[in-house]
Amino acid sequence: MADEGDEIKMKRIIAIFLLLIFVLGLAACSGNTNQKESSSGENSTPTSDQDNDSKENSTGENGGENLSKILVAYFSATGTTKALAKYAADIYEIVPQDPYTDEDLTYYTGGRADKEQNDPSARPAISGSVEDMSRYDTVLIGYPIWHGQAPKIIYTFLESYDFSGKTILPFCTSHSSGIGSSADNLHSLASGANWLDGKRFADGTSKEEIENWLAENNIKPNESPVSAEVGKFDFEKKTVMLNSGYEMPIMGLGTYSLSDEECYNSVTALLESGGRLIDTAYMYGNEAAVGRAVRDSDVPRKEIFVITKIYPGEQFANPEKAIQDALDKLNIGYIDMMLLHHPGENDVKAYLAMEKFVEDGKIHSLGLSNFYVEELEEFLPQVNITPALVQNEIHPYYQENDVIPYIQNLGIVVQGWYPFGGRGHTSELLGDSVISEIAEAHDVTSAQVILRWNLQKGVVVIPGSSNPDHIRENLDLFGFELTDAEIQRINELDRHEKHDWY
Asked: Which of 35, 105, 336, 495 has a Cα at 20 to 30 A from 173?
């Protein structure tokens, strides 16, 4: 089983990288010659899609420094380093097709990992692949040490691509004095590559040491910005990059008030229609239905983004139990994002507990619901992980035009619930003459106009519905675009009229 201390050490090391190079994240994982990690997490393709212009591939005039595109490929059984993707050059997590269990990773029991490390022909399958390895000239490969060597899944990775002419720089963590023979034994798997001397990183590694290591290897981070900018909506991919390093769909389904069967059928309709974002909560009483629909779907788990929330009171007082209950009810391997449902006693305690589950890879991103400027100013200094999302009531009659930019300027994505005004107000809002006129001009529905208005303001939308036709309609938001004048007309509808007490 993994040594949590090693994982913490590695995070400290990576933090140094972030301070040093800002756009090049050193994503690594922990391990040693006596212990191994347990598996969770999903495979990801690189998060950056930078242009291949000449300045990124230049050498010589810069003193031999490598300004080419860099890929950080790493294997980590916990998957927690993926959260660093927001700062990095392109990052690729090497994820086993058949995840390792704690039993697999127990040393000297004749288990799966023991057998793989002792079998020269063992090549564990990898889930997913690097989208276009030809784009990269430099590859940093990170791994833990198992039985004194790199895990055999690293062998699989190296044999899956043509590394001819590329520069490879390995790194690892262990309790040994160096990277040892683990890197040398990998060279034959990519014989056409330019292998640089690898390095082991230990607790207390200084910024200067990291800087010197990169300089010694003539590697300079990409100077061009990462294209997947945090908080910026990508209307082609229909996603937004969160500050946690994960991509989230910008439109989906809210499940508030949906009963078990209704929820299951609605989530199923969403997934069948191409939607991938689902919002639930403990108080909705339908987490189990959401999880069942996700498990029954043919859509790969890694493509689905599930948000749930824990509630003030007993759940905030006993957050570890509340979080584990959500994981058990959903039963989908991990939670993409967990929110505090609204401010309340022990909210900081509950959030700090959620942070621990992030460290364990059981939750990927954290957020808040029903927090406004005053609440955020008080709350944020007390936690360690900046929320990736704040979810508040937002609709044309309650626009939060002062709150939205405040949150976005913190690098936090905004999500709106009650986009149609909430029960008792939906008919009035959808029938509003301004919205109806704009809808008629674009040959779309009023609901689509409201949702598109939100998206163009940088607000993620999660309209609730049990009607499959409406669910499909609420996803069809990319065949038209509102003009600045139309957005201004809708902005003028703001009544500062809140329709719920949160």
From this structure: 336
